[in-house]
Amino acid sequence: SVDCSFSRGVCNWKQDTDDDFDWNPADRDRGDGYYMAVPAFVGHKNDMGRLELLLTDLKPKSNYCLIFSYRLAGERVGKLRVFLANKKTASVWEENKGKDERWRTGKIELFQGAETNNSVIFETERGKGKTGEIGVDNVILISGLCPED
């Protein structure tokens, strides 16, 4: 497995320069490192912020599972979507409201065909809310299919 978390991960993360705002590091409650977040008050309604995970050295014709923690805290905070670079038109995962402020786990199966995915994009879309944040943390890539809960 490959640890792509932000505090001590080995992966290559890049801010999109064609979007409306950047993701920023935020300190974890326990004080052990940080996660990436977009506060609710950044930007205007429907503005987008994209954070790209560059994937290298993935074997063609292989299955991978991307596991990550996410949180949508606050009323009408917006949407969190995940895109694969070679399928930019439709998201492969989307969440638009948190039931509470707890961290949850997202899982996405990646199949590397002859044409491999070279990146995964985490995109936030700003909602109407003025408080809260959208956060992503503990991003891990494992080979094989995603485990059942």
From TrEMBL:
Question: Per its UniProt record, what InterPro entries does this chain match?
Answer: ConA-like_dom_sf, MAM_dom, MAM_domain-containing
What range(s) does the MAM domain occupy?
Answer: 2-148
Full protein name: EGFL6 protein
- Organism encoding this protein: Ceuthmochares aereus
Which Gene3D superfamilies does the entry link to? 2.60.120.200
Q: Which Pfam families match?
A: MAM (PF00629)
State the gene name recorded for this protein. Answer: Egfl6_1
What GO cellular component entries does it have? membrane
